[in-house]
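SEQUENCE AND FOLD
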Amino acid sequence: MKLNHLLEQQKGNTLFITQGYICRNARGEVDNLKRGGSDYSASLIGAAIQAKEVQIWTDIDGMHNNDPAS
């Protein structure tokens, strides 16, 4: 996997900052993942590096324990 290869080249570094939201579509064109795309990107990267935890902090007021889309 490309991500794992890139991380292998960065041994010793413990903090990485990257963008979410940007992807390639089925035609190979640069596209975006729409609403929630950055959260989805974080989850994919977390899975790829076998992270124990992925935290997603948002700019909402208070604490939510439900699906805001419903």
DSSP finds two helices and two strands in the chain. The mean pLDDT is 82.
